[in-house]
Amino acid sequence: MSTPPAQGRIWSVFLLISIGWGTGGVMTRVAFDEGLESFAIVAISSTIAAVAVVVYAVAVRHGFSVGPLGWRVGAVMSVMSVTIPFLSRNFALQYASAGFVGLASALVPLATAITAHFMLPDEPLDRSTMTGLIVALSGVAVLVLSGDAGIGEGGRPALSGVLALAGVVSVALGGVYAKRHAGGYSPLAVAGVQFVFGAVITTVLMLVIEGAPANPTAAGWGTLGYIAIVSTFIPVALYYWLLRHVTVTYSAAIGYVIPLIAVAVGVIALDEQLQPGIVAGGALILAGVVLTDRARRRRATADAETVPPTSV
Q: Which of 51, 243, 254, 263 is deepest in the core (most CB within 10 A)?
């Protein structure tokens, strides 16, 4: 039986994923400023991420056997975790700040917990977990009800919120589906399939809707590289690892931290607006993270104490 990873390692992975995904919206807004469009950003960054998976697999001499289940999970995740959420986020960012759009990601744990309750027999909702999720969700409500899109004139917070919500639902369904089959596929192989299929889907959509993109500037390529590696490849690969060692509801708590990073980086890098509601909402979100984590720890301890001893 393998030894579970140390809590410090889990939290380090948790933080790296949060930073990658939390800064993705900010870099997407930078890409817009460089003249890139929504479909082109997803198509090109997914292609770069797919190449990164192959290069990494070769560099570490990792076996790249996908298998039937891996192909199926990768195909589903290419839609649920790449095409739909990335495009919906890009469209949402046209009407609100990166911080505002990042707030919607805090709904992922709640959507995931509800989905897991119906799809995974070993992840029922308990009172403590629901308390943490509700507290965090109330923080999101405080942030959203501030009524400001974070970009001044021209913002459309309601439309941006609906677009972002579509991505939240898609990510929740995809996360539960991946967890349901965890252990039966190679995370690295599935990540490769996911990015390749996602790149193909979004490239076809790009050519049909936007046409062939103009050659990006040097800054544009740098932005696309960041989105592909730091905000896509690394977080997705680490997220698959995380799913194998913690519950899907706990892993989805990353969605609580992403908004805080998105708000902070957006204010610093893009001069997005910071309001008192954002501070209050952020505090509630952090409180929800703590409550959810404590509930997970108590449940893990209780499960360990009820495991019957094995005969020798």
A: 263
pTM of the model: 0.78
What does each C-alpha distance from 226 to 24, 45, 255 come to in angstroms?
Answer: 8, 9, 20
Helix axes 7-33, 84-92, angle to 10 degrees: 50
pLDDT, one tens digit per residue, over 44-99 is 998 998 888 888 777 766 555 677 788 888 889 889 888 999 999 999 998 888 88
